[in-house]
Amino acid sequence: MTWGFPRLTKDMRERGEDPGRVGMVADLTNPMWEEMVVEPRYRCLVVLTHFANPAGDEGAKTRTWFSVKDQPIAAWAGFCRNIPGEGPVYAGMTMEANEAIPPTNDRMPVLLDPSEYDDRLRGGIRDVIRFQFRPPLPADRVLVQPRKDLWRSGSPPPDGARQIAMI
Fold this sequence. Notes:
- This protein is mainly beta.
- Helices cover about 15% and strands about 40% of the residues.
- The longest helix is centred in the last third of the chain and has 9 residues, at about 125-135.
- The model has no long low-confidence stretch (mean pLDDT about 90).
């Protein structure tokens, strides 16, 4: 699967640009997500061990890794779809960050507890919206691991032997 839904705006088309990719679903009211939000078949769990954010000055940004202390494998609320001409794509839903994430970002993934998987995958539209606007995972459950490697280095997390990300 490819990370990010294709997005081609009118301005991009006029400039002859290729579609961009939208990998973070920050606003469920955006018409781009309208059909996917209400259709359970387009919901997924993005399974991960870590997520990362860039930190520092432009051109010298480093990588800061985050993981859930008591869950070696976590699930991120996502959307997926098989798009004609593109194939299967997916994106993750974001929410306001807890106190552990800034200054790297003011948003974070919507991380789910295993008891929430069924509501996320099969619940109604109100359940989907509720996940994005509820309080985030408490900061004391998040392990923060700043690294010195550059953001675009592709380096794995400090305990990368257990790193996975799949749908």
